[in-house]
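Recall that a protein's primary structure is simply its ordered list of amino acids. Everything else, from secondary elements to tertiary packing, is in principle encoded there. The following example makes that idea concrete.
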Amino acid sequence: ALTPYPSPRGRGARGEGGRANRSRRFGERSVGEVVAIERLLARCAARRFRGQRIVLTNGCFDLLHVGHVRSLAAARQVGDCLVVGVNDDESVRRLKGPTRPIVPATERAELIAALACVDEVVVFGGPTAVELVQAVRPEVYVKGDDYGSDGKPLPEADVVESYGGRVALLALVPGRSTSDLIATILGRGRATGRRGVWTTKGAK
């Protein structure tokens, strides 16, 4: 499941003219980059050599919303480098149903990489992130507090604990989810008699 995945431009790890995609900078803070698993592992090794702690989290991130942004910002605070695994399209369909994802994996990954709190992004397949965790071996693995002993099962936890890593469960933002956002959009579309099709009239 951890195979090289195309960059947002569909050119592997290279962009226009064959030049390698590089992190861009907003002020003094560089933003992340979508990378293949091989490059990610090399970068993680280099960061550990410099004494940095790797934090890993993962999700579908279909229709990015404020809950995602706040959770990722909080995850970044528990270590020195935040790696985000983004589910590929096939795994999102298996997890969320045949109408998902709304946004394809390459675009979802690019959006996550544009956040200032994110250092590296990798697209992965499979029903869980177990293989990704085994490959990256983060010092801290972060998920929402809807997982854990009193919530949904977290198969990645056993892997993290097996090599001495730590699992951190962070509080979710109440009332903020992609499913709720989709329901709101569809509800407003029905209210206008457009059967779920919404208009951008007046949008800026």
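The mean pLDDT is 81. The first helix runs from residue 37 to 49.
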